[in-house]
Amino acid sequence: MSGYIIGIDIGSSNICAAAGKVERNGRMQILGITSSGCNGVKKGIVVDIDKTSESIKNCISSLERMIDIKINEAYISLPGGISELIWNKGVIAVSSEDREIRYNDVKRVLKAAKIITIPNDKEVIGVIPEQYIIDGYDNIKDPIGMNGLRLEVDAQIILARSTIINNIFKSVNKAGIKVLGIVFQPIAISQVVLKEEEIQRGVALVDVGSESINIYIYEGGILRSISTIALGGSIITNDIAVCLKLPFSEAEKLKIKYGSVSADPGKKSLKIEVNADYNKVKVDYDILVQIMEARVEELFSIIDKEIRVSEYYDKLSGIVLVGGGIATIKGIEDFGKNLLEKFMRIGTTKYIGASSPLYVTAVGIVKDVSNSIKYKNIDTTTNKNEDVTSYEEIAVGLGKKNDKDKHMGFVTKIKEFFTDFF
């Protein structure tokens, strides 16, 4: 596909897809991004393969028209809310005669970390290294090129239910797209919206979707915890539909176009004309704002309670809000700051045309894959005799301290067990 990297984010109400390319100067560019409605996914889980597949087809068709190429392969995200993190350690002996640690040694120690006992209905999706230890010396972020006899890694193992992953893959494959790999959603988002200082000092990344809220807490350069709330932006739409006696689809349009949690004095007397079961009705703008304020305040209070129970609450420098559930509502930033009593900002990407918080995961997938490609190219240049396979292992460098770390992405090659599904 002429060097294009395609990322697909499968959400409960929208499928988002982004196309990127690594320029000659090494910088990634987003050349196209689009979204399509979806009603085959509930709380991050595919419940209707046909509907999900059709939504993916529509989204990819739109992206194809945008960048004028045929798309037949892509990378997808794995939602954090349907995943589980387990801490484990891997230990190996350095294999080279000169005791220099190479890429294959890192691959082997990460593979060793994945040797754990898990339930039959779950699979190991990947591994996130926290630190490497060489001959007892810890806090090493990138061991490649260093010397030692014994290499260890403290890591987080990512687990997910096989059936959930299976259905996601089937939906994408049925749309005519080959899945090249998976990117863990919290890592994908962090690639494009979080600052290194935030990740080190402590930050809560709050991804509010249509039907669920995922809260990812980073501290000390590491993803510390994941929690999920079974509520999302669709509950606001439902309130508007019930209170104003409107069809759900019209209530959603009303929320997107006029929704706000900060009433505009100039619109106090505004009457909004909408369709209601083949009739035209007029809605008071002020009432719309009151409905939204009440529900958003409740959602923020639930988020606040969830964050406060975390042992890292006092270390958090702030909260970053992403997703299409509430992050696009007018006035949400100041509203959230007042309720959460912490600095809060909306997480957006720096790429032109992709600045909406709705697109952060799709852009993050492309960014992470491009980082992995650059890292792989650097490593094959310095270790030409090594057997290096792109995307085979996860290599994460949060809070990176050197140039090489910056090219360490979070991408997995499709594991062997996925081939058994098809």
TrEMBL record:
SHS2 domain location: 5-193
Pfam family, one: FtsA
The keyword Membrane appears for this protein: yes
Main subcellular location of this protein, as a coarse class: membrane
Membrane topology: Peripheral membrane protein
NCBIfam families noted in UniProt: ftsA
PANTHER family: CELL DIVISION PROTEIN FTSA, CELL DIVISION PROTEIN FTSA-RELATED
Subunit structure: Self-interacts. Interacts with FtsZ.
Family affiliation: Belongs to the FtsA/MreB family.
Function: Cell division protein that is involved in the assembly of the Z ring. May serve as a membrane anchor for the Z ring.
Name used for this protein in its record: Cell division protein FtsA
The organism of origin for this protein: Clostridium kluyveri (strain ATCC 8527 / DSM 555 / NBRC 12016 / NCIMB 10680 / K1)
Lineage of the organism: Bacteria, Bacillati, Bacillota, Clostridia, Eubacteriales
Gene name of this polypeptide: ftsA
